[in-house]
Amino acid sequence: MSDSKTSQVETGKLHITMDSNNLQVSYVSSMLRVLQAAVRDIARGVDDAHDLFEIHPQPVLLLSTEVDGPDLQLQIFFADPTNSKPMVELSAQAFDPFMVQFGNLLKLLPQPGLWGRVARRSGPSSIETETDRRLDELRVELRHF
Q1: Quick one: which of 101, 90, 92 has its CA closest to 48?
Q2: Tens-digit pLDDT profile for residues 31-90
Q3: Alpha carbon distance 51, 106 (integer Å)
Q4: DSSP 8-class letter at 60
Q5: In angstroms, rounded to a whole number, what is the distance separating the alpha carbons of residues 145 and 142?
Q6: Is the peptide bond before 57 cis (omega within 30 degrees of 0)?
Q7: What is the pTM of this model?
Q8: Looking at the chain, which terminus has fewer C-beta neighbours within 10 angstroms, N or C?
């Protein structure tokens, strides 16, 4: 896939757009698995949402898809596990910090030098928590696209 974009276009939904041609199932599956773990991890850390993950059944992540020309558009959102009704507030509470933390992780990564080599970074690793580790896994998975 040549181009992959992740954004929160619509409140309560995380949108991912990628080239729909010749998708490797293992890459898509792995990316969705890691994305789900990272989003759930961040959602559990949100004060107003934490209690929802302490009860069973927990909110579920649902996926809607649409193909627009060469683009495969994925829309991900939390829903009530009993009736699949979108939980817009929970989704927004989870996706906002998800995008901020993922953006912060990307900003801390070493940048390519003038001749394409990655400059070595001195100092502590940007991977400090389990959430950071999951976000870094997501970064690696997204490189397949």
Answers
A1: 90
A2: 999 999 999 999 999 888 888 888 889 999 999 999 999 999 999 999 999 999 999 999
A3: 30
A4: E
A5: 6
A6: yes
A7: 0.76
A8: N
In the block, which residue shows the tokens 């970064």? 139
Tell me the CA distances in angstroms from 109 to 2, 86, 126, one per residue in order.
Answer: 21, 34, 8
The distance between the two most distant Cα atoms of the chain, rounded to a whole number of Å, is: 54
Q: What are phi and psi of 119, to 5 degrees?
A: -70, 135
Amino acid at 130: E
Q: What residues contact residue 78 under an 8 Å CB cut-off, 6+ apart?
A: 43, 59, 60, 61, 62, 86, 87, 90, 91, 94
Judge whether 69 and 18 are in contact, CB under 8 Å.
no
Tokens of 5: 């974009």
Amino acid identity, residue 91? S
Distance in angstroms (rounded) separating the CA atoms of residues 113 and 100: 25
